[in-house]
Amino acid sequence: MQMALCIAAAMATQALWLRRLNIPGVGYLSPVITGFGLSLLLRADTLWLHPLVACLAVSSKFLLRIKGKHVFNPANFGVGFALLVLPGSWVSPGQWGNDLALAVWLVALGALVSQRARRDDAAWLFLITFLGLAALRVLLLGYSWERGLEIFGHQALNGALLLFAFFMISDPMTLPDHPVARRLHVVLIALGAAGWQFLHYQPNGP
Fold this sequence. Notes:
Elements: H1 2-21, H2 29-41, E1 42-44, H3 49-63, E2 65-66, E3 69-70, H4 74-85, E4 89-91, H5 100-116, H6 120-140, H7 145-156, H8 159-167, H9 179-199
Helix pairs in contact: 1-2, 1-3, 2-3, 2-4, 3-4, 5-8, 6-7, 6-8, 6-9
């Protein structure tokens, strides 16, 4: 029910803004992806929260723009807003587990989507940077080889990490167009994510 309400609210909000701004031929794939992403990432104890967040997330595409680009990925904006402002919302990265089959499916599908958007370089750079920092942390903590591989594998196969890399940070409407700026943008986000998770120990958000 939450997923249906979330996607319906996202599509209705898109229709409202397209009509309000008289923008033709845009379509509804973007709000469907946003609604689907919010349904997968965000948890809530009420039915109204997902539709509200979907409306805010899609609206952010039209209201928060710089030179034709989104300031935030809509789904990321929605999740962040909900965690910071709305009571009764949370995220649970552990829900994805660390299943190899799921990871392979996400990588295959995500690589296809990001490659078609011509932003697969951003997804791979984010993963290389973040997982490189995860590997460095394992080495610095002095784990045994076997235990270190287990911990690194737990990070590398995390479904939430792969979903973010291939379906969010690679969003062409959010990334800078210039290759150097795009790479710097991705590396800074990877550094921030690693610092938040490994130094502040808050993988579930604030």
